[in-house]
C-alpha cells in the first residue's frame, strides 16, 4: 500500500456550529452604554434603500458623468483624509460620518464639525474657502462643503449602546 505524506486516510466530521455569521451593521453594546451611535449608524443594512435612500442617490450611472469605481474610491479617501487632517481638532467621531455625494460633476461633502471656543469666524470661513478651492483643484471638479458645527459629540448622538 502506497502512502503519501501529509494526506490523512481517515475522514472527520466537524460538529462545531457555523462561525461565519453576518456581522454587517451590528454594533457591540458596552456594559455602561458609552458607545455613541449616530442616526446613520443605528440603521440596519437592509434599510439602506428605504430610510437611508438619500445617501444612495448619485449620478455615476448617467452617461456623461460616469467614472470608474477605483477613481471614485480614491477621490473619497483623499477627501476624507484631507478633511480629517485640515480640521483635526474639530472632526466629530474620527471623521467616519462624512457623507460624500456626487451630483453631476459636483462633489458635495456633508458632515459635522465640533465647535471650539478658540476658532474665530474669519478663520472658519477662510478654512472652508481654502478647503473647497484646494479640493476642487486637486480633483479637477467643483467641491462644496456642507459642514455643520455642533457643541459636543453628544449633539450628534442618536443612541448609546
TrEMBL record:
Primary residence: mitochondrion
Keyword Mitochondrion: yes
Domain of life: Eukaryota
Listed GO CC annotations: mitochondrion; ribonucleoprotein complex; ribosome
Record-stated family: Belongs to the universal ribosomal protein uS3 family.
GO BP field: translation
Annotated transmembrane regions: none
Protein name per its UniProtKB record: Uncharacterized protein
Location of this chain's protein in the cell: Mitochondrion
Keyword field: Mitochondrion, Ribonucleoprotein, Ribosomal protein, Transit peptide
Amino acid at each position: 500500500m502506497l502512502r503519501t505524506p501529509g494526506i490523512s486516510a481517515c475522514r472527520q466530521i466537524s460538529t462545531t456550529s457555523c462561525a461565519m455569521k453576518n456581522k454587517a451593521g451590528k454594533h457591540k453594546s458596552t456594559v455602561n452604554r458609552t458607545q455613541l451611535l449616530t442616526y446613520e449608524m443605528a440603521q440596519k443594512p437592509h434599510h439602506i434603500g428605504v430610510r437611508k435612500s438619500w445617501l444612495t442617490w448619485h449620478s455615476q450611472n448617467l452617461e456623461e458623468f460616469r467614472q470608474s469605481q477605483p477613481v471614485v474610491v480614491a477621490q473619497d479617501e483623499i477627501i476624507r483624509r484631507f478633511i480629517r487632517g485640515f480640521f483635526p481638532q474639530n472632526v466629530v467621531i474620527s471623521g467616519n460620518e462624512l457623507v460624500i455625494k456626487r451630483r453631476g460633476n459636483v462633489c458635495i461633502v456633508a458632515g459635522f464639525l465640533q465647535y471650539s471656543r478658540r476658532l474665530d469666524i474669519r478663520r472658519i470661513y477662510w478654512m472652508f474657502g481654502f478647503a473647497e478651492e484646494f479640493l476642487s483643484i486637486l480633483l479637477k471638479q467643483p467641491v462644496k462643503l456642507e459642514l455643520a458645527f455642533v457643541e459636543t459629540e453628544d449633539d450628534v448622538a442618536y443612541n448609546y449602546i
